[in-house]
């Protein structure tokens, strides 16, 4: 049985990835930070639909000092690690506090690197280990009012290039899926008019459904995808391309 660790499985994109992988027969470590009820509900749904698979919740706030231990100490074997956690703040760079800058860098870059340091051996033992980051098209295009977020997503796109070279001989692939705008709770900070303006700019004419992002994660996890590594797949409906 294959095991995937999904960081941020309580988020809208992470939850969709969890649903799709559970459907494909994966057992899952389901990470969350605050939304415990969402994860309990999801596990309840999975246990009745997929009784032969296992689903283990892992609570860890990436701002806590013991956050990496809380995750890696719960893992006995793992074939795929998917980073779908993330936050953003919508404001000018000059309005960011030092804590907010630390939060964005720590949550999306530093803690994922620390988790991979500790799970690399286990991924190597999987013999077709997979690492996938949910990045963003802003990591390539940059977005005003989301400068630290854009910077960190750009760093992720470079991280996958570099780290994929280190672990290729262990048959571990490392890639990123970079969405444009996705219909999730992260975008609930925007009013309907702003979201309509974004939608009008997207060539395919709608924000992505989380399933349209999750599909590409499944592609990268497939056994046949072992020759694809170090890449960022832009899944934007043609937006900002
Ligand atoms: N939505 C978009 O338009 C869009 C576009 C491009 C890229 N992305 C990227 O896609 C990923 C998922 O985004 P989403 O739209 O699914 O967002 P979401 O629904 O808001 O989910 C965010 C996830 O991050 C977790 N998280 C928040 N604070 C955390 C903390 N302190 N420690 C650890 N985990 C924490 C949340 O856990 P709890 O809920 O349990 O706190 C949740 O699982 C992010 O990396 C985001 O940057 C999103």
Automatic annotation (TrEMBL):
NCBIfam families: EF_P_mod_YmfI (NF047420). SUPFAM superfamilies: NAD(P)-binding Rossmann-fold domains. Belongs to the short-chain dehydrogenases/reductases (SDR) family. InterPro entries: NAD(P)-bd_dom_sf, SDR, SDR_fam. This is 3-oxoacyl-ACP reductase. The gene is fabG. It comes from the Bacteria.
């Amino acid at each position: 049985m294959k095991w995937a660790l999904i960081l941020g499985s309580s988020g809208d994109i992470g939850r969709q990835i969890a649903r799709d992988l559970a459907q494909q027969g994966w057992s899952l470590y389901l990470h969350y930070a605050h939304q415990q009820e969402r994860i309990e509900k999801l596990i309840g749904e999975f246990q009745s639909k997929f009784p032969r698979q296992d689903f283990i919740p892992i609570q860890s706030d990436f701002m806590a000092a013991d956050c990496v231990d809380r995750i890696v100490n719960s893992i006995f074997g793992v074939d795929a690690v998917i980073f779908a956690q993330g936050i953003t703040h919508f404001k000018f760079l000059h309005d960011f506090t030092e804590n907010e800058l630390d939060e964005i860098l720590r949550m999306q870059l530093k803690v994922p690197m620390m988790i991979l340091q500790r799970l690399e051996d286990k991924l190597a033992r999987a013999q077709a280990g997979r690492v996938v980051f949910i990045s963003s098209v802003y990591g390539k295009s940059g977005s005003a009012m989301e400068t630290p977020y854009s910077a960190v997503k750009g760093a992720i796109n470079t991280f996958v290039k570099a780290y994929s070279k280190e672990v290729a001989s262990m048959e571990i692939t490392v890639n990123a899926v970079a969405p444009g705008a996705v219909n999730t709770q992260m975008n609930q900070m925007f009013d309907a008019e702003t979201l309509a303006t974004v939608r009008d700019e997207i060539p395919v004419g709608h924000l992505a459904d989380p399933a349209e992002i999750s599909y590409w994660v499944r592609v990268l996890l497939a056994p046949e995808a072992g020759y694809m590594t170090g890449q960022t797949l832009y899944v934007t409906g043609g937006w900002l391309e």
